[in-house]
Amino acid sequence: MTDDLASRIAHARRGQAAEAGSGGSAAARDMTGLARGMRIGTEFVAAILVGTGIGYAIDRLAGTAPWAMLAFLMLGFAAGILNVIRVVTEMNAASPAPPGSDLGPEDDEDDEER
Amino acid sequence: MATDPIHQFVITDLFRLGTVGGDGTEGSGSSLAFTNSALFMVITVAVIAIYLLASTSKARLIPNRWQLVSELLYEFVANMVRSSAGTAGMKFFPFVFSLFMFVLVANFLGLNPYFFTVTSHIIVTFALAMMVMTVVVVYGFLKNGPKFLKLFVPAGVPLYILPIVTPIEVISFLSRPISLSVRLFGNILAGHITLKVFAGFVVSMGSLGLLGFLGASLPLIMGVALTGLEFLVAGVQAYVFSVLTCMYLNDAIHPSH
Asked: Do B169 and A82 touch (CB under 8 A)?
């Protein structure tokens, strides 16, 4: 009985030590589909809004309307895509595909070389 | 009429505290008042404080139910901080736990009929998000100095692309408080409006005679289902808010992608 407890304590300690170094990966583990969708959507929209807002402020200060706003709209769009890619990468890392699922053809990388 | 779905978000002054600024005439300056929103923030904090103090004051080795729930909450948040921000992030545990409990209890209190939902106003969630970002920026600079700016310069990017990549990273960073606050506010606002609209259908259909009375059972079923969903959303959004807080704190502790 005590051996069992000791092994369980050792197991828990190992788990904690493994978790201690890593950061960020296990975060998006148990979210519902709705929460995931909302997360991706708001990350995307927020970046576009912030980018456009910065451009608008520059236009107001420098009187260059509408060019800074257009440029920063594009940058905001890029930042939104970047945000989405980060979120999805992190979600994928948190929940790997179940074994045996169809992940498409394996030789995707080879296509670029041809 | 009580069926106005937006009416539940109206802020009313409970008592005036005085005015700031202005020239002394009526209506000038900004008035400071203790609003219903402030009242429910106080209630939220009071509920959390009384509950946690009462459940842990006579702590026993074998916990009773109340103490068990407090310990589960502690473990839940502690594991979240450890897995997202590493052991170095545990110094932020009190901050994250306070945020989590505030959002969670405010969401759950708001689900009671006739209660005001604090988190359904974007200024409240935005203030919480800005608090998080202030902690991230201040601690990031204190701990890492100028190296904190490496966050905006991804490693391994060629020099000639940096003028494009850095603004994108800066915008991406600045969008965090917006997305953090809009997500919580949007979920709570949308949920409460939907619930109110379906509840309004029940009343207006029920007044249309027997057929309407039978038809009113459909939105009633929806209303019951939505109430369950809203409890889920209230919990999940508090969780998401604090998980993202941990991840942003992780950036301040280890500023490299």
From this structure: yes
pTM comes to 0.81
Pairing mode of beta strands B13-20, B30-35: antiparallel
Q: Is A21 on the interface with B (CB under 8 A)?
A: yes
Is the predicted pLDDT of residue B125 greater than 60, yes or no? yes
A-chain CB neighbours of B187 within 8 Å are 38
Does residue B1 fall inside a structural domain?
no
Query: For residue B194, is it within any domain?
Result: yes
End-to-end CA distance of chain B: 54
Tell whether B22 is covered by a domain: no
Number of domains in chain B: 1
Segments in chain A forming alpha helices (H) = 2-21, 33-62, 67-94, 108-113
Mean pLDDT, chain B, as a whole number? 88
A52–B contact, CB cutoff 8 A: no
Q: Is B23 part of any domain?
A: no
Mean pLDDT of B12-39: 78
> Is A34 in the B-facing interface, judged by CB distances under 8 Å?
yes
Strand partners, B35: B13
